[in-house]
Amino acid sequence: MDILKLGICEYEEALNIQFDLLKKRQNGEIEDTLILVEHSPVITMGRRTNEGNILVCEEVLNKNGVNLFESNRGGDVTYHGPGQIVGYPIFKLKDSHMSIREFVLNMEETFIKLLKEEYSINAHRNLEHTGVWVGNDKIVAIGLAVKRGVTMHGFAFNVNTNLDHFKFIVPCGIQDKGVTSVKNITGKEEGLEEVNDKVIKYFEKAFNKTIV
Question: Which residues, including other chains, have CB under 8 Å from residue 27's CB and lie 6 or more apart?
């Protein structure tokens, strides 16, 4: 598994990088690759987005420095912004010997174990909704697309994220749930570079991969 850390990168630029690596992985030119990135504030709309789940007009978003972007990922509307670790695994499912469902379960397992072992946070799956949850609040959102057997898009892990920006939307279209972050639970701001390393460590374990 290769790791590509983009640092702070606009959503559209990172999407173009995903498409480039996606094509190369489909053609066998690169190994499975995990992209890690932090985005400027942006609300992305997945293929199943109900526009009613965006609760404010674009003018309000602009005033708050939040962009709006239509994405080809699965799922409804979500938010990305500073303090959030976003991961895009460009993985060939056939080579990993797993179904899409198994791939999602492994991503969830990555963060359930990370949160428990590193922060003593008891996180869990929700049988109705994809992602990782702490109580009734989502801490990791997951949305994938699969093109010619290769995954793109992935997860968004709230570490120090500004949770107020989630008030502009109904996150993932789920009316009766909330969102949370590591900082919100522990009261402590985390260094994202250190948390990135933890994500890589637990991702390797969950997917039985080794960094090359």
Answer: none
134, 156, 163, 172: which is the annotated catalytic residue? 172
**Within-domain flag for 48:** yes
Q: How many domains does the chain have?
A: 1
Question: CA 196 from chain center: how many Å?
Answer: 13
Residue 49, C-beta contacts closer than 8 angstroms, at least 6 positions apart: 70, 75, 76, 77, 173
Q: Is residue 212 part of a domain?
A: no
- C-beta neighbour count of 43 within 10 angstroms: 26
Q: How far apart are CA 77 and CA 58, in angstroms?
A: 14
Indicate whether 206 pLDDT > 80. Answer: yes
Q: Is the pTM of this model over 0.70?
A: yes
CATH of the domain at 33: 3.30.930.10
- Quote the CA–CA distance of 8 and 29 in Å, as a whole number: 26
Closest CA to 22 of 13, 12, 32: 32
Task: Give catalytic status of residue 172 as yes or no.
Answer: yes
Q: Which residues touch 6 (CB under 8 Å, ≥6 apart)?
A: 14, 17, 35, 36, 37, 38
pLDDT tens by residue, 176-188: 789 999 999 999 9
196 belongs to a structural domain: yes
Structural domain span for residue 89 = 2-207
